Amino acid sequence: MRTRQMIGLDEAVNGKRVKIQEYTAESPFNYRKNCLVYLPESNKKIMHGSEKDIVRIADQIKRLVSAVHGHTLVLFTSYSLMGNVCKLIRGSLPFGVHRGSENRCPDYIGKAGSGGDYGRVA
Known about the structure:
The protein has helices at 2-6, 31-34, 51-67, 79-89, and strands at residues 97-98, 119-120. By secondary structure, it is mainly alpha-helical. The chain is elongated and about 55 Å long. Residues 105-122 have low confidence and may be disordered.
């Protein structure tokens, strides 16, 4: 439902509801085999969103993303934190870092110029 709203498929055309046909295909991606969720533990008492926190998060992401050669999607609960971490990471990895936003999909799809997958930070 939310996707239809975001791309305007829930709106009426000339005051009339438009019938939309939908199809949902199962993903061929084996999430159980190929996906890992990493939630870091920290014993340090650092204020959330502080400069130290941003540096700590950026350093962890750089280490993890480098270890898997950029095949990564990073999720944040704050656009502000995501932006600050992206500023620190961008340019420090051997592949592209792309930031998504709330209102649009990132404008990258495909491969990096070197033929490898993009490193994704969103």
